[in-house]
Amino acid sequence: MTSQFSRVESFAPVLQESIWHQHRDLEASSVEARIRLAYERARSLINSVGMTIEDIRLLKPKFWDFHRHAISLDSGTWTILSIHWNLCMGTISTFLSERPDLLPLLQALERFDTCGEFLLTELGHGLDVRNLETTATHQADGSFVLHTPNPRAAKTMPPSSPHSGMARTAVVFARLMVAGKDHGVSPFIVPLNDASGAMCRGVSCTLFPSRPGAKAIDHAMTSFSHVPLPAEALLGHLHSPPKNERKEFLRAIHRVTVGTLCLSTSNAAVLRLSGCIAGRYSTQRQVGAPNPVPILSFSTQYGPIARILAHAVVFDKYALEATQIFIQNFGNLDTQNVIAGVYKATVIDYTQKALGELVERCGWQGLFAHNQISELWLSEKGNSIAEGDYLVLCIRLASEILLGRYAPPKPRDPQCLLARHESGVWGEARQVCASLHGGHRGKEFNTRLLPLSLSLVRATGQRMTYEAAKDAMVHRNDDGLGVTPQVLALYESTCMMEDQSWYVENGIMSRRALLDRDVDAMNSVLPLLEGMINDPAVDAFINAPMVNQDRLAAFFSSLPSFQGPEAEGFQAKL
């Protein structure tokens, strides 16, 4: 079953609303105005998408489709709603069957009468959240007192300011203290401010400076000073200290693992949109005299664009397959961690390098946020850290796989080139691991294997991406991003070119043969490139002025300008 938003163009109608027009971004001159605009756009999307409690709780297609497509509307708005829907409502709805009293709050969140937040990480701990210091102390009457014991225990960096223009309620993770004993980390429901903007008793918020490039939202640091909470604020039960604290903690923050995957699925849409923008710019930008030619005619220009658009296609197929495997393994946290971590590492690593190159290929115009690519690039930099820094995820995944605790899905065709590469690099790592002293926490493991973590996990992800795209091509499982043999061959060759030495060292192909194969793959895609660049499905999402000379002229005529008096002694000639 698919949702009405399974295709990127299904989001286009909402962009006809005036609140989404680019002039609104230019008019929002203050930080507060830009933040307010993001929340107004969030309400616009909520009214358009119609996400329900059950869509979120049961991870239905509408939930995944929003994350796959909607970041390109406004990255700030997308972040607000991802926290609101996945982390806040997703966590609370987990307890709904045993806590029907939570339904009114969930309904208020569903209507966006209240904005939901999720406060887990702390200033002094970052990813080391199992050692967080915020406490919720059980009182004799059954209530709790929430407290930030020192500055390093302040919650960062989800938004919590009054600038949203609406009430906020957060899921706050704190160390549950009962009769002086630590009962582990538990989630609590905590109001942050009311509809008038007044902060709640004992709650303080420090607004962060704006992130460079990305759309503005009110990232903040939140602290609690002896905040009283009713007994029903606790999500869960008062119990003795958990026997397996790690498992209990991972279960409590399960929606973070969901976020690891769903946030990363946006990369396909970002690559697709950015490739189309750069391609259209490169078609109309000409150089040379006396017979100027489009810069798209140069391999240094069409190469990065073609590769990005090919990756957009195959990553989207991988997103669909990874999501399906993730849902099928509901309750199996280890498998879900593998699927989400491998997907995120694979797509984020490529996206960061590819978008950086694309910005450069668009010259000075690529640097400006109004042309979208640099803004999307910096937004995805935030996503590379949100819900788990992808390098740290790779360190954990690679270590667990080498120790035999986790295992990614096996290759469907062990003899395909990317599967052989995956098997080879993991085999080399296992040989190194077996020769080390001190175990996986020793110095040698730290110096010799941890630096390989990203490349190992990426090798698995590249193989899984290839398999998902190939199956989609064979079974014509298409939702608008068609996989062709040419696209698949270019993707495969791009992956192989990233580790040429392995293929040469293992006698599979010479450097010359690899290069010839890559050139052939690129040349096979070129007849398709114009259609990929001018994909009408993304037209509504493109507001970059640089794609069209008339649009560029109109954009600059709308900006503030200053003019001196006419020079004396000169008369304009008609």
What report would you give on this structure?
There is one protein chain. With 574 residues, the protein is of the alpha+beta class. It folds into two domains: 8-252, Butyryl-CoA Dehydrogenase, subunit A, domain 2, CATH 2.40.110.10; 260-541, Butyryl-CoA Dehydrogenase, subunit A, domain 3. It has helices at 22-27, 31-49, 53-57, 61-69, 75-93, 103-111, 245-252, 254-264, 266-284, 299-328, 333-361, 373-385, 390-402, 417-434, 443-448, 453-474, 485-497, 500-505, 511-533, 549-557; strands spanning 114-119, 135-138, 144-147, 155-157, 167-178, 181-193, 203-207, 220-224, 227-229, 286-287, 293-294. The strands form three sheets. Strands 1, 2, 3, 5, 6 and 9 form a six-stranded mixed sheet that branches. Helix 14 (417-434) runs antiparallel to helix 16. The protein is globular and about 85 Å long. 45% of the residues are buried. The model has no long low-confidence stretch (mean pLDDT 91).
